[in-house]
Amino acid sequence: MAYRRLDASDAFWRRSNQMGVLNTDLAKQLEAESLGARLWRLEPGQASTRHRHREQEELYVLLEGAGRIRVGDELLTLAPMDALLVEPGSIRQVFNDTDVDALWLVIGAPPEPANTLEMSEEQLRELYPDGPKALPPELGGEAT
Fold first, then answer.
1. Helix (H) or strand (E) holding 127
2. β-pair partners for 88
3. What does the CA dihedral 118, 13, 17, 134 come to, rounded to 10 degrees?
């Protein structure tokens, strides 16, 4: 087959294992083999995990709302349709300290395991240097 289509009404959304953020795994549903792709809908007061990847580059595109992301020690604010590429090894965290939802498209390649329930303790420590539920200071977490 030359393409696969996923209609928005057919997308399966669920809360993430660690932070409870509503997301849909587009790559999995479309059976992508060489990249990962998700939509993340962060409600006010929510954050993604503070994490890094060993080999994966990630492209972040803010689709709706106001976007805040910390990469290393740098705090960035994105407007709708702004894009940001984060290199492997860089620690990053998307969060929402506004009063409206923020919808992000996150695409990564090459794909890396994403199911924290299937990772070893060593893999989890490497992926989440501050633990899988660390919040940014803007949401009441400790400054890093």
1. helix 121-127
2. none
3. 130
